[in-house]
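Z., the sequence and structure:
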Amino acid sequence: MKLRVLVLINAAAVAVTLSALNYYFRHNWYDVAITFGVTIITSFLIFYWLIEKYIYSKIKLIYKLIHNLKLGRDLRDALGEHVSADPINDVENEVKEWAKQKKIEIDELRTQEKFRRDFLSNISHEFKTPLFAIQGYIEAIQDDEFDDLDMAKDFLTKAARNVDRLSYLIKDLDEISKLETGEMAINYTKFKINDLIKEVFESMEMKASQHHIKLVFKQKYDEPIPVYADREKMVQVLVNLIDNSLKYGKEGGSTSISLFELHDQVLVEVTDDGIGIEEKYLPRLFERFFRTDTSRSRQIGGSGLGLAIVKHIVEAHQQTINVRSTEGLGSTFGFTLQKNKPALQFPNIPVLKS
């Protein structure tokens, strides 16, 4: 409600009251009219001055402060000074909107705090496991004083494997950190995704045979499909996804890759027929160190960061990744890549000779 309307209502209320009293005592309509006119004008001027000086000016100051805080310095300088026609109503809306925004920010901070606690707990556990194993093997060798050389060699081999696991953890964490902060550059090149998939399959054939899992890339994808992305990063994405499918696939099963050409993108899907994932776990699947089956994951090994790295690489390319899965039937991970658009072909225009 605007100030003049508010003051006019109050002035009219006072004028009506005094006019009613005047009529009650004098019963003269002329005096009532004079009383009403003088009272409403006088009340309006006095109320307007008082409210403007002691209340309205302070409300406008509060509104200006809230509005400027919301905009920030850059937007405030760009838009200039803002004057509201109805600061009483606007300040109410601004405060409500601001309170809603702050509530969202607080909820996000609480979520981030929970994520930070979970992350610190997970990373502490991930580091403690190999460190305690290394410590145990070294202490066993020291207690034995190298009397049993075969046992010492065996323990040193196991300690070395745990050192490798720590190295993988540190390397993966460093890579995620660089991807998140933008320190790791994406080197875009043009290449054929078909050829890249075949190369990755060749490099992982031995590991797949150890798991008794067949790698499938159908002949219908021999038609070259050029994409525009970081070739080395895409190798890492495919290796991580295939490696994940081998770890959780079933013996004698298969892992296949399919390609789907969209308008200006290519959809790459990695599908396995393994144990699958419960639906409740799907939203958290790309979180760092998140494991659906902790005991089995520990036995299988790995840093627990593979899918998180995949997600960061794909999103660094301004693309999307998703997963769909049915427990007991298998999982499909799909991500998009920018299709390499063919160069524009200009027709040969004959040159006219004079």
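The longest helix spans residues 87-144. The chain has a mean pLDDT of 79.

Let me know what you think.
H.
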